[in-house]
Amino acid sequence: MQDSLNAAYRYLSYRPRSEAEIRLQLRRRGFDDELVKTTIIRLREQELSDDVAFARFWRDNRLAFKPKSKRLIQKELREKKVASEIVDQVTADIDDDAIAYRLGSDRMPSLVRLDYRDFHRRLSGYLSYRGFSHEVARRTVARLWREHQGEDCLT
Asked: Same domain for 149 and 101?
């Protein structure tokens, strides 16, 4: 038991993990299913395994350091085998338009000298890469272009 707990502690020392990730890692390390189950229960008791807390951590980390769309964050959490109800609950308040606007605003210095066609192509491509829908990208590009044109008129 202590060996499996130590392996789990070591695995969790790098970053928080979903229960499914811990379970998979312990099985890879050769621990049988009953021992893995007991270890997971022990980790829950110590509040070291909590999929809701993990999903919040993942969402907050993504939004702060590598902003992505709600859809892409949901996909990443589902790939980590977090329950759909938890994924939906944790991502319910994500505003794709606000995130896309922030990302687009950050990219503006490299886009200000472009004509509309190149501006649209590069910014919408970047937003698509970050997982935003065509509609969100279109609205963000139009808004930033209007703002950029307004700044040009003032100078």
From this structure: yes
Count CB-CB contacts under 10 A for residue 105.
13
Helix or strand or coil: residue 9? helix
In the numeric block, the tokens 């919040």 are attached to: 56
The answer to whether the pTM exceeds 0.85 is yes
Structure-block tokens of residue 35: 């021992």
pLDDT band for 113, please (50, 70, 90 cuts).
very high
Do 121 and 73 share a structural domain?
Answer: no
Residues 6+ apart with CB under 8 A from 35: 1, 4, 26
Which residue pairs, CB below 8 angstroms and at least 24 apart, start in 10-18? 12/43, 12/48, 16/53, 16/54, 16/57, 16/58, 17/49, 17/54, 17/80, 18/51, 18/54, 18/55, 18/77, 18/80, 18/81, 18/82
Q: What is the pLDDT of residue 14?
A: 92
Q: Up-side HSE of residue 86: CA atoms within 13 Å toward CB?
A: 19
